[in-house]
Amino acid sequence: MTRLPNTTLGRIVTFLMALGAASLMVSPSLAQPANPEKEVIEELLTAGEAEANQFAPSFLQMVPVSEVNTLLSQLHNDIGEPTGIEGSDGRYVVTTPSHEMVVEIVLDQEGRIAGLLFRAPVETGGEFTAQADKLLAFGEQVHLLVTRNGEVIHEHGANTELAVGSAFKLGVLQALTDKIEAGEHDWDEVITLTETDRSLPSGILQAYPAGSPLTIHTAASLMISQSDNTATDLLMRVVGQEPVEAALGGQVTMRTQDLFKLKAEDDLRKRFAEGSDAEKRAVLAELQDLPLPAARDVGAPHEKGVEWYLSAYQLCGLIEDVRDLDLFAINPGVADANDWAKIAFKGGSETGVLNLTTWLENEDGDGFCVAYTVNDPEAIDENDAITAYGSLLGQLARDDSAN
Fold first, then answer.
1. C-alpha of 126 from chain center
2. Domain that holds residue 106
């Protein structure tokens, strides 16, 4: 399966090859002498570069060797050469003088690399707080909250409400769950996609014809695992505006298509950003009759007042309320599923906005929340921010000082 980054609203944050732009393709491999997987990993990380003939053609069709070499060079410079590699059956833990890193690899029948995944390197011997503080350098405004069983381990500006992109969909999910628990809807209830639900990507439902039947569970799963914007707007129609706004702390709440339309309409966008709640609602009413803009017209950076705003405490509260839903098993986000008994993840991004919110439960039943948001007038270095966040999650799983 190939997962590539989606730069539109509601990007599904995946962590493939640390750059967020690689492929994990699983192909059958034959038993071979010694441990060829381990040997390939050691060769790549020691040399800090690779040759095209080391990869299966199917891999190179999606990830050029130049991109692999960019990552290998970065890793070589940042963490050094491997001093040990332990593991088997495609999953290995690499140690260097300063870091520990999980590598997943698949070789084809000819011993070529068909799948490769480098998870975030975790600094060994470092302090958890020092790793957490590294996350503060990626934007003008940052909030971060790390909790264990509801108690704060680390926080920075956690009460500040920042733009969170598609992480607002946690509020849609909570409102939906409340309705289902109240007996007003069921997970297997069939709902119908209408033309008025259609939004821009990310997601797949924007390509479905109007009239397509979907279960609520399917729509919710797409909303969370793929950050499907059309599924989100469909569910917001089914649930209703008021319950969603209540879940999000009472703010006037746009649909995803409303944000896209506002990005393309300067006058309406200014009126919405500066308006009272009543004026914002009037603008949203005017948007109903406007067509969706082209994707090329909605890439401008986040403008203050035109987004969904939540604090880190609100994000942790939302994801804690819905963490047990089975749909979170589809996409664990940045965390390594081997480190945790349970993971619930939702992120969000647009130009100038990045959010990563994760609920984690270890084998002892301890629950952790890590909510991280960056806002900046310019584009954020998402690759490095995601890498640092993944490293923090890895350290959280291993560092007694954080537990």
1. 25
2. 36-118
d(CA 215, CA 191): 6
Tell me the CATH number at 383: 3.40.710.10
Does residue 389 share a domain with residue 267? yes
- Cβ atoms within 10 Å, residue 118: 26
Domain count, the chain: 2
Tell me, yes or no, whether 108 and 200 share the same domain: no
Same domain, yes or no: 104 and 156: no
| Secondary structure (H, E, C), the chain | CECCCCCCCCCCCCCCCCCCCCEECCCCCCCCCCCHHHHHHHHHHHHCCCCHHHECHHHHCCCCHHHHHHHHHHHHHHHCCCCEEEEECCEEEEECCCEEEEEEEEECCCCCEEEEEECCCEECCCCHHHHHHHHHHCCCEEEEEEEECCEEEEEECCCCCEECHHHHHHHHHHHHHHHHHCCCCCCCCEEECCHHHCCCCCCCHHHCCCCCEEEHHHHHHHHHHCCCHHHHHHHHHHHCHHHHHHHCCCCCCCCHHHHHHHHHCHHHHHHHHHCCHHHHHHHHHHHCCCCCCCHHHCCCCCCCCCCCEECHHHHHHHHHHHCCCHHHHCCCCCCCHHHCCEEEEEEEEECCEEEEEEEEECCCCCEEEEEEEEECCCCCCHHHHHHHHHHHHHHHHHCHHHC
Which of 99, 118, 137 is where one domain is finished?
Answer: 118
- 203 and 326: one domain? yes
Q: What is the pLDDT of residues 279-322, one digit of tens each?
A: 999 999 999 999 999 999 998 999 999 999 999 999 999 999 99
pLDDT in tens, 119-153: 888 777 767 888 899 999 999 999 999 999 999 99
Q: Are residues 156 and 72 in the same domain?
A: no
Q: Are residues 134 and 114 in the same domain?
A: no
Q: Same domain, yes or no, for 298 and 357?
A: yes
Residue 273 within a domain: yes
**Dist CA 99 CA 136 (whole Å):** 21
Ranges in the chain, pLDDT < 70: 1-33, 126, 399-403
Domain boundary (118, 148, 177) is at: 118
If asked whether residues 198 and 106 sit together in one domain, one would say no
